[in-house]
Specification:
Shape: elongated
Low-confidence stretches: none
Helix content: 10-25%
Number of strands: 26
Mean pLDDT: 95
Bound molecules: adenosine monophosphate, magnesium ion
Distance between the termini: 40 Å
Strand content: 25-35%
Amino acid sequence: MEPFTADLLSIEDAQALLLRGISPLLSSHTLTINEALGWVTAEPIISPLNVPGFDNSAMDGYALRLTDIDAEHVLPIAGQAFAGKPYPAPLPAGQVIQIMTGAPIPEGCDAVIMQEHTQRTAQGIELTATVSAGQNIRRIGEDIQQGQVVFDAGVRLKVKDLPLLASLGINRVKVRRQLRVAIFSTGDELVSPGESLTTGQIYDTNRFSIALMLQRLNCKVIDLGIIPDNKTALSEAFHQADQQADLVISTGGVSVGAADYTRDVLVECGDITFWKLAMKPGKPFAFGRLSESLFCGLPGNPVSAVVTFCQLVYPMILRLQGITEKPFASYRAVLTNPIAKQPGRTEFQRGHFLFQDGELRVTAEAKQGSHMFSTFTHANCFICLPRESSSLAQGERVAIQPFPDFLEGA
Ligand code: AMP
Ligand code: MG
């Protein structure tokens, strides 16, 4: 490692420091399953039922008793069983029941032969294929057993999860309360989209990226707007944010520039540490506690703000929400283009990966500037280059993190 980077905090140490002493929000309330998408379970969800609830047919066909099968004889049809309308009696000896998919298996039947494997005659059916014990019978409880834990506490309920609750007849679920996150952008140069720009001004990107990601993480966003670079305004914003939120996120002003007042103000109103991270993009970062809330000060460059949010703030939000699953999936992929890198900082380049010719391949975006938000547009992953790594040639293997759902999802 280059000696000049020795004072930089590694991303692993920063992640550990951010999680230290943080425990999940405890209060909870109840929502209907129609409202619960994206919310986090506050307690384990236990199945009140067996699924399936009774042995039933997987096919349209004939339910029969194996010992009644006799190659010489046609089997008469004693009756019919429909989904929701069972055959009301045990199977009479030497006969079959015509049965539809989902209908309860009549007592005494031990298999269902599918309709396509039978020949219907005036007297009944002949079998045109063999049938074995239990064939085409869906067994009681084979999917879920009554009393089984279907979701642990601390699971974010997704589209793929909620229909399962419906299938168990559960219509209400206890969830953890929403994390309240106050956000603001700092900078005299910032203007909201829709307004016109004068010389030296730029549009505020970060408030939108951060708010959208937070919404996708089911946080309640308190948007405090753009705060100019002056101590009074900043100090007021911090005070207001601290009163309203569990977590305060600001962007900009955490570097060492002459207008970076965030630092001065925070020294007065909280217990905040200013970090120089061994991370690119995203070197300056501030973290600590205000009187009522936690605080993260993200760098102003829009790509740096998103990358530090993903790598540092997101794991902390998961911890606060009581979610136990790992924040990142990581894979190895073959580089299709060379990457220039100096040792010293962990890099999170934007890239595009796909599966081709039996392997994952990734192409780094040509431009990687931390001020270039367009580098996200065609990318679908971070290429994660270790701190000590130097330039990489085409064909080398690298770690990739597909963009998390809150960044890539609609
Ligand atoms: P700072 O961290 O305040 O020194 O800002 C670093 C760079 O990011 C500067 O070029 C700022 O103009 C830019 N920047 C800061 N905040 C934002 C924002 N909310 N949206 C877009 N660019 C920003
Ligand atoms: Mg600034």
